[in-house]
Amino acid sequence: MRRALSLVGLAAVPLAVLGVFFVLPVSGMISEGFWTDGSFDPGAVLEVLARPRVHRVIWFTVWSACAGTAVSLLLGVPTAHLLHRRRFPGRRVLRALLVVPFVLPTVVVGVAFRELIGEAGPLGFLGLDGSAAAIVAGLAFFNVAVVIRAVGAAWESLDPRPAEAAAALGASPAYVFRTVTLPALRPAIVSAASVVFLFCATAFGVVLTLGGLRYSSVETEIYLLTTNLLDLQAAAALSIVQLLAITALLAITSRLRAVPDPTLARSTARPPRPSRGDWPGMVATGLVLLLVGLPIAALVVGSLQVDDGWSLANYRALDGTGSRQALLVPVTDALVTSLRTAVDATWMSLGLGVLVAVVVSRRSRSRAERRARGLLDGLFMLPLGVSAVTLGFGFLITLDRPPLDLRDSLLLVPIAQALVALPLVVRTLVPVLGGIDDRQRQAAASLGAGPLRVFATVDLPTMWKPLLAAAGFAFAVSLGEFGATSFLARDDHPTMPIVIFHLIGHPGAMNYGMALAASVVLAACTAVVMLVVERLRVPTVGAF
Amino acid sequence: MLSLRDVSVSYDGAPALLDASLDLADGQVLAVLGPSGSGKSTLLRAIAGLEPSSGRMSWDGDDLAGVPTHKRGFALMFQDGQLFGHLTVARNVGYALRLRRTPDAAARVRELLALVGLEGYEDRLPATLSGGERQRVALARSLAVRPRLLLLDEPLSALDAGLRGRLATDLARILREAGTTALMVTHDHEEAFAVADRLAVMRDGRIVQQGGIGEVWQAPADAATALFLGYARVLDGEAAHTLLRAAGLPVGTDAVAVRRSALAVADAGPLAGTVSSARVTPGQIRLVVDVDGLGEVDAVARLDTHAAPGDEVVLGVDASRLAAIPAGH
């Protein structure tokens, strides 16, 4: 009985927060689709779903997500092999650098790609501007890091002896890979693929900035329908479709999730130097570096150029509001707002994340308890898949009246961002806590330590590094969050991604140059945070 | 004094411990012996307050229901020690002392480390210790605040055989010297005999027999208990009667448990048979002999007898290595 009470007690705060700031807004958004003028009217939803444009949007979302996933896997798996199973100078730096794209602000990446493949860009002759190929490349840009991370961690911890045994039995390297290595890696690959698909299918910033008018995914379509066309019913209908698809996908993902035990002592042999047989890994790594490096290089070079000459004028202009009053506040103000918001979002997601992780990772005593914990685990993963746009819009329509009138509250944005970062925090902490032998806690308790003391003795020493890493991760994600923030940020308190999006939407070379410079500044901030996180060497960061 | 009355534990409705009743007087060491899955660890965890249980559990008459683990004053020592890896040996041992703000903790830690034979190990980290050293540190840590009751969960099973024997002797000495009341769970009867003075045998979630270690040893309650206590075979029916008569014992029961060394090749004896297999061990030859009227039984021979399969041998019987099993089982 006391166990059940303590479970409920620990879960109460996160549940209440999730209820008010996630379930309420999302269900508010959904009911918008089913109720017209106070009466239940599901026909309208079906009518929306019959529109040809909606079919096109859904079809584009599915195939672009599939293509993005395929490209990420094709590039990521061989790269993971080279970076995690071969030894060469600089591989640690490379590994760290290739994690950064995942947290780069989507708007920044969109701007960088446009700078690279736009008509005036270095690759403009390819005619990729506004093409579906550009969108797929953008999706791969982010998600190749997820694949490298997840598959690399699994590969690194793979016992090399079965492969050696197969080789000793006369199997060729290719045959060994196909019959021994690949089956052992399959859980990690499948799990990475499903998460990547999820991220691709709900990508917002990239599609919005690169898709232009020709291509729209479910996520951007919801945004356009709500903000430009004010067709709330259609937006709600699409949200429902997305929610259902993603809940199903999340359920599958959670079954496939395979995170290596971080506390397990592993005695893998020192990896060998790369040999000629490693050409797939080298080629893939080269391509990944190009995919990640070229847009960033184009962005940085572009930001340093004014009228075909080198200049810092774009950066100097950041303390202004752009030409033709593009902005209400200077970009530097937005940077301060972004940093402040990120700090708030970080402590919120961290506080909730620790509670959730503790609740979810404690060993269950009965089947009912295990089921309850599993359910909670899944529930707190939902924000990972539910579109940030739906969340942001749901905030707007449900938290605008008493008792919860938060429309003008400056806390609204950090709360939304904290919810977006929450699953990442939880996923970083749960494997670490779950890896602690429960008997350590029991040993401490039998020596007279109360629950808090047990936590301080057993959990905290193992957790502080992952906790710090999760904090950095949440901070970086919050800095770049665009989907929910685009709805919620007040005009006089925009964050950096919002400012950048405004700047590229306004005509004028000066504004565009400022957008590039602001993008570089924001990217640098997130990259620095992420590189610090990487220094902590917590294996569960970014492993889903 | 620990006292249990009809204590039961079940997992998801499946009973793991059924109606366990036992008493443990201060200063005594009780070994709970049973095969894996017999519920012995569940019993220990229930006493530690780690499993919700029904029935009555009390210490010196005070009910323990609702007292959480950390307030019971029962120290628990695990199979693999469960030392805190980030703390030095001294800080591990002094953990409970610091919790209680005991003055002069450093001296007590030194004293405890001397007790377990690890003087000078204060600043080592657990990862640098051998398995046996880790168990000694875990023991010192458990004894630090003189727990009312020390619960030992297979304390020696993780160690290799030679070390286990030595440490069992040490453990017995340390528990006596500290005057600790202890309850040790084990599946190894030799460990139990080396350390404990009372024995409870468990099977299928129930305590099937308990008492002084010699009593249980000499009078196992049933055939399965006898086999678990290290008896080689249980003979029943006519074979049991024949053996009891040969040993000069009254024929009162239908079953008798036989230790391997109860029958030994001798120049003259009451039994005769044919060797069906022989295996040389460092101390003796282990035989299986087909004895007239008994069937196949185990026996031993001195190393210089050269007994081999097919040989006719005469066997003497050591009555002190037989145990009559009460009727009704």
Automatic annotation (TrEMBL), chain A:
Residues 58-253, 335-533 form the ABC transmembrane type-1 domain. It comes from the Bacteria. It is found in: Cell inner membrane; Cell membrane. Its main location: membrane. Keywords: Cell inner membrane, Cell membrane, Membrane, Transmembrane, Transmembrane helix, Transport. The keyword Ribosomal protein does not apply. CDD domains: TM_PBP2 (cd06261). It is a multi-pass membrane protein. It holds the Pfam family BPD_transp_1. Gene3D superfamilies: MetI-like (1.10.3720.10). InterPro entries: MetI-like, MetI-like_sf. The chain crosses the membrane at residues 57-81, 93-113, 133-152, 188-213, 233-258, 279-301, 345-362, 374-397, 409-430, 467-489, 509-533. PANTHER family: INNER MEMBRANE ABC TRANSPORTER PERMEASE PROTEIN YDCV. Belongs to the binding-protein-dependent transport system permease family. This is ABC transporter permease subunit. It comes from Nocardioides mangrovi.
TrEMBL record, chain B:
SMART domains: AAA (SM00382). It comes from the Bacteria. The keyword Membrane applies. GO terms for molecular function: ATP binding. Gene3D superfamilies: P-loop containing nucleotide triphosphate hydrolases. InterPro entries: AAA+_ATPase (IPR003593), ABC_SmlMolc_Importer (IPR050093), ABC_transporter-like_ATP-bd (IPR003439), ABC_transporter-like_CS (IPR017871), ABC_transpr_FbpC (IPR015853), P-loop_NTPase (IPR027417). Residues 2-229 form the ABC transporter domain. The keyword Nucleotide-binding applies. Keywords: ATP-binding, Cell membrane, Ion transport, Iron, Iron transport, Membrane, Nucleotide-binding, Transport. CDD domains: ABC_Carb_Solutes_like. PANTHER family: SPERMIDINE/PUTRESCINE IMPORT ATP-BINDING PROTEIN POTA (PTHR42781), SPERMIDINE_PUTRESCINE IMPORT ATP-BINDING PROTEIN POTA (PTHR42781:SF4). This is ABC transporter ATP-binding protein. It comes from Nocardioides mangrovi. The lineage of its organism: Bacteria, Bacillati, Actinomycetota, Actinomycetes, Propionibacteriales.
